[in-house]
Every structure is written in structure tokens, then in C-alpha cells.
Amino acid sequence: MIDRRGVLKGAAAAAALPLLGAATAADSLAAVAASKGLRFGSTVGGKNFEDPAYRALNVAQCGLIVPENAMKWVALRPDAKSFDFRAADAIVRWAVDNRMGVRGHTLLWHSPQWMPDWVTRHDYGAQPAREAARLLADHVGTVAARYAGVIDSFDVVNEAVDSDTGGLRETALSKAMGAENAIDLAFRTARQAAPGAQLVYNDYMSWQDDGGKHRDGVLRLLEALKKRGTPVDALGVQGHLGSKYSDTPTGLGSLDVRAWRRFLDDATGMGLDLLVTELDVHDNPLPADFAVRDKLVADHTRAYLDLMLSYPQLKTIMCWGLSDKYSWLQGLRPRPDGLPKRPLPFDADFAPKPMRDAIAAAIKAAAPR
Ligand code: XIL
């Protein structure tokens, strides 16, 4: 079992320094962000969390940590009855010990592909809606309550909108109880179990010109949540840049910046805060040469963050990893030339890249929060 008192004691100490970790370097991304009232962080877990040098890089650069996989259903739930918190607790304890804040990801990944198989095989009995609601509320309530007071921001629902159609996805839970009901229940249960935490809807809608259906679908969902009084506080914009076009020779894709601004205007117009939760750049179609590629990735990042930071509602920027060595993108659709990808602010040897300077420069140029 987690020593909640120990964790909470550390969290109370962290509260005095909410934006900076204990070992954060003075010119770190976290420090630059803190000087503007922003939080900067990244994700850890699995193999990369076992690397002491990588942990040190995170402590040096981050004010905020999110477990990459350890808080997902697939990691926490071996079956319908039990929870395995060991991996998640280890990350939370390490973050708290190093005076970093923690985000939770994700209480409900509303996408069938990413839920454990047993959720589909589960016997929902004669009253499936009731059993699905029980299972979901039990999961969200247990996880949110365990980390309440330590985690101050949860991705409550992740990727509920089908990016091709804009409609809500179907999962075993939503088939039993309805997608709206499942999403509502997740937010309401999270609010009850962790009343002080920011509750986020998180998704990968983008500024690409073919992203209209996804953006519209997310706005429809957020409007419906607001109308029903569902407690959602913020929109998490994942920020996996370039991903849709990563196998085409068109550079990083063609953008529709006006549509993206309209989308962000509409979301913030509902009173929602914004977070960039999973920033990285899928560089498949970019030239092989590292210097050329790194500059294009940095320029793209800078343009994106300048736009995002023009919204005062944006107070958190998270990269999905700090070093190219451990990016999830390395395992996803290899580059045609077989070279490693360079999607993150530090290279495989943990040396800073132009993307790191682009993030710092964008934050320095932003208005204080
Ligand atoms: C990814 C992890 O990085 C991988 O290790 C895992 O195999 C799949 O999930 N959107 C999200 C994140 O919300 O949870 C995903 O993380 C990346 C896309």
C-alpha cells in the first residue's frame, strides 16, 4: 500500500514551491515556465523510469510529471476486482520526493483499443447499464481518491471523440451504459473523489487542415458537458504535432491556423482553461540530416507554442517525454530511411536540441499568467 501520509507530507512541502522541483536547474524549462506563472513538465514510466540519468534530467527540467502508462486501466487493473498501484505509486512518490507536481492520466481512456480486454469480456449481467456504471465509478473513485491532494490535475476522459467522424467512440462500457453517461459519470465521480483537482478532457485534435471533424466533435462534446453541468474545467490539447502527415512527403502537413484559433476561442469561450499535455513532433517526412531536421522541428514547435501561449488560459505545457531516446514515436511507424526520430527537446544522449530553445523562447516571449 502507498504510504499516503508520507506522500501527502511531501506534497505539502511541494505546495510551497508549486512550480519548481527541488533540483530544478535555474535555467531549466521549469524555471523559465515558473517565471511566467506556467508549469512545464513531461511524462515518465516503464523502461525510461529505470534510467537514473533520465530521472535526473526530468528532475532538472520539470515542475510537473505525468505517468506515461502507469495510471491507465491497462496498468492499474489486472481484472475487474483488483488494482495494482505499484508502478503508479513509485512515480508519484518520486515526483513528490523531488518536489514536482503530478498530473493523472487517464481515468477513462474512452477508446476500445486502449482498455484492457477483460472490460470487453466482462459479464455485465441482467442490468448492464448498472454494472458498467458500478465498474466505472469504482475505478474512477478509487484512483482519484488515492491520489487526491497530491495530483492536482486529472485527464479524466481521454480521446472520446472519433477523429474521422467527430462522433463519440463506442467502448464496452458505453455500449452498456451510453457514451454520454459514461463520460458524465467519470467527471462527476472524479469531482467527488478529488474535489480540489482540475478536471480535464484530453484529446489529439490538431491544427491540421483536415482536422475539422475532430475539432467540431470535441466542441460538441464540451458544449454538451457544460449544458449538463458536468464538472469539466479544462481542455487538454495533446499536441502530437505532425502525426497525421508523418508518412507523406509534405513536410509537417498543411495547417488551418484560422480554424484552430476559432476552435480554441470556442473552447475558452466556454470558460475552459487550456493545457498542452503531450507535445512532440513526429518528424518522419523531414530530411535525414539532424541539423536540418532539428531546426524544422524547433520552428514548428515555436510557431505552435506562440499560438497556444497567446491564450492566457494556457498555464501548463507538458512534453510527451524529454529525450528522443525514449519517445513512444520511435516504435510507431519507422522512418523510411530507418534513422531514429528526433521529436523531443533533448537528444538520445540528453543534450539539449533546438526544440528545447524553441520552447524556452516561446515561454519567455509569452505574457505572464
Ligand atoms: C502512449 C504511450 O506513450 C505508449 O507507451 C503506449 O504504448 C500507448 O500510449 N495519447 C495519449 C497517451 O493520451 O496516453 C499515449 O501514450 C499517446 C497518445
In short:
The protein has 369 residues and is an alpha/beta fold. 41% of the residues lie in helices and 15% in strands. The protein binds (3S,4R)-3-hydroxy-2-oxopiperidin-4-yl beta-D-xylopyranoside.
Helix/strand structural class: alpha/beta
Strand order of the largest sheet: 1-2-3-4-5-6-8-9
Question: Portion of residues in helices?
Answer: 40-55%
Quick one: CATH superfamily? Glycosidases
Protein name: Beta-xylanase
Enzyme class: hydrolase
Organism: Sandarakinorhabdus fusca
Family: Belongs to the glycosyl hydrolase 10 (cellulase F) family.
Question: Layout of SSEs?
Answer:
Layout lengths: L3 H13 L12 H6 L4 E6 L7 H10 L2 E4 L5 H4 L9 H12 L3 E9 L7 H5 L6 H20 L3 E8 L13 H6 L1 H15 L4 E6 L8 H16 L6 E4 L2 E2 L15 H13 L3 E9 L8 H20 L4 E6 L34 H12 L4
Helix pairs in contact: 1-5, 7-9, 10-11, 12-13
